Amino acid sequence: MFSSFLTVAVMAGAASALSLSSQCQSTLAGVATSSDGSCLNAAGLVSLAVLGNSSSIVGPVNTWLGGFCSKTACTNATLASLVSTIVSGCSSDISSAGLGNVSTSTITSDVQTFYPAVRQMACLQDTSANELCVTETLSGIQNATGTLSINNIVSLVPQILAGSSANIPQNVTCSNCAKEAYNIFNNFFPTLLTSSDKSSVQTECGSSFTDGTQPSHITQTANGLSLAQNNSALASFAIKSTFASMVALASGFVVFA
Fold first, then answer.
1. Is 221 helix (H, G, I), strand (E, B) or coil?
2. DSSP letter assigned to residue 220
3. Which of 50, 90, 123, 168 is geometrically suited to a Cys-Cys bond with 222, CB 3.0 to 4.6 A?
4. pTM
């Protein structure tokens, strides 16, 4: 089953933020108000920071993404600065996650490599529903599983990552939004999806899901981009450390000191 990586990352980050150390929370709070954090609309995550553990994250995430997509893209220098600050302030949390042996330079390189694809996937919009794709996907998951609160995400994320959450219908996992997210991921990282992966996706969503064509009604809202524009010449990267790094950057701001 193919699901939008960013949707899962947002959910996983919201859950992981529950256990952040006070020092890490303070660091992220500082980043949220810094000039470096502006390109991530980090300050826009305050609505998530004050959200109750039983309240739906869908609305606040949608609000944050609207601001995020309107910002100009982060430069590599800004991403490097953000990584350096967060790695320094959240060192104990990173070690607890089993990534203490991953160097700052490796994390920086991975984040710089992965960020453009994440930004493009995050800012896809379904014009037929007049809704951002991440919001549409989160709403679909919520409709199938119940209120998508931080409390529920703790148990739901492992199921989705394992592909075992049978309650999520095909119209969510195989939507036009999901297809374009797949296209973007495959365009950026063609070697990461094996023939077995593609076969599994085709079994779930049909052969046309992986044909590379642009689905109808899906547009790009990221500032300065359109679906006709693609970035290339991306280096390979370690997927485990990249996933953890992007979770920390994209959604670690959920809880503040």
1. coil
2. E
3. 123
4. 0.81
Domain extent, residue 51, equals 5-253
Q: What is the pLDDT of residues 157-211, one digit of tens each?
A: 667 666 666 578 888 889 999 999 999 999 999 998 889 988 988 998 999 999 9
At 125 the three-state DSSP class reads: strand
Cα(243)–Cα(252) distance, integer angstroms? 12
Overall number of domains in the chain: 1
Q: For residues 43 and 33, what is the distance between their CA atoms, to the nearest angstrom?
A: 6
Given a contact cutoff of 8 angstroms between Cβ atoms, the answer to whether 117 and 189 are in contact is: yes
- Give the separation between CA 37 and CA 44, rounded to whole angstroms: 10
Quote the DSSP letter at residue 229: -
Which amino acid makes up residue 252? G
Give the DSSP H/E element, type plus range, for residue 48: helix 46-49
